[in-house]
Design brief:
A: 2 helices; B: about 260 residues; 2 strands; about 80% helix
Chain lengths: ~70, ~260
């Protein structure tokens, strides 16, 4: 096994450890408290488990009487 | 007062009880919420399954294993479509995303892709010994670097970032699809995709860059799902997205290293 492969293997082990360790940490407030974040709930209907039938419209928040 | 006029006059309710009543009922009353730890554990499980399947197809090479690997690719593609949906330019969603399928489809996806990458990795290793360790290491190095950049806020995914990455990913997907059809008809690949020259290497670097940006989007999905108290199955969904992108990144890095070794 060449020294390049050994070095790469060592780098890979350290990177994998860092990857799994950092993945468990919360992101910084600089990342989470931005106003221009992607709104994933527009694309991924994870609040609903029945293909959209339970998704509420904005106007369903409260009931108004039509005069 | 009409409903819309009332909304315009008073605005939307700021009362969290009113605003998120449906959400609370669906998520907290009936289901456990996802956590970052859970998503990391599921990522570990899926990577383990991928490596195990890859080890089997690496060890037992032959026509039967080639057939199993091809079937694995089909299973992985169907699992991916059943979970992430299928979107096409100017047409929209041909299949809607169904994240609640992820606990069932994610292991199938990981095993199917594992058989496939085991086969191509063994072929690459027989041509260039040591290349697989280098590719795996570089994949984790890129992933760890981007994860650090994401968590610290150096890379901030925005709506424009999403559109750019999505458009580039679709472009790559269409190019690969056209290449597959061209291969089926003529028996050869597009020259620019397999070229060992500067153009081929620049294209590989571009594709690796887009795959790496997709990782940032996966991190953002996992982070936001956790913040918003998404249902437990989103752990599998996030893990599946992450493992899928890691596998793509690994394949592209392997191709790049093969091109560099052939020069």
């Amino acid at each position: 096994m060449s020294s390049l492969t050994l070095g790469a293997g060592f780098l890979g082990l350290i990177s994998a450890f860092i990857f799994f360790y950092v993945l468990k940490l919360k992101a910084s407030t600089k990342q989470t408290q931005r106003k221009n974040r992607i709104k994933w709930d527009r694309y991924i209907p994870y609040r609903d488990d029945t293909d959209g039938e339970g998704l509420k419209k904005e106007s369903d928040d409260a009931t108004f009487r039509n005069d | 007062m009409s409903q819309h006029r009332a909304l315009n006059t008073f605005g939307r309710s700021g009362n969290p009880v009113i605003r998120s009543a449906a959400f609370q009922k669906r998520v907290s009353a009936n289901e456990e919420r996802m956590s970052l730890d859970g998503a990391v554990n599921k990522t570990g499980i899926l990577l383990f399954l991928t490596v195990m399947a890859a080890a089997v197809s690496w060890t037992y090479q032959g026509p039967l294993m080639t057939l199993i690997s091809s079937l694995g690719m089909v299973v992985a593609a169907v699992s991916g479509i059943m979970t992430f949906g299928f979107y096409f330019f100017f047409v929209g969603w041909l299949v809607n995303p169904r994240p609640h399928n992820a606990p069932r489809t994610a292991p199938l996806y990981a095993i199917g892709m594992g058989f496939f990458i085991g086969l191509i990795s063994e072929q690459a290793e027989s041509m260039f010994p040591g290349i697989v360790i280098q590719a795996v290491s570089l994949t984790f190095f890129v992933a760890a670097s981007l994860l650090l950049a994401y968590k610290t806020g150096i890379i901030k995914p925005t709506q424009n970032f999403l559109l750019m990455v999505f458009a580039a990913t679709m472009g790559i997907f269409l190019t690969y699809l056209a290449n597959l059809i061209y291969f089926a008809v003529t028996g050869s690949h597009f020259f620019v995709l397999t070229d060992n020259g500067t153009t081929g290497i620049l294209i590989s670097l571009f594709v690796i860059g887009i795959a790496a940006f997709n990782l940032v989007l996966d991190f953002d999905i996992i982070e936001q799902s956790d913040e918003q108290g998404a249902p437990k199955y989103m752990e599998w969904f996030g893990a599946m997205a992450l493992v899928g992108t890691l596998i793509w990144l690994y394949i592209e890095i392997l191709r790049l290293l093969m091109k560099l070794n052939r020069r």
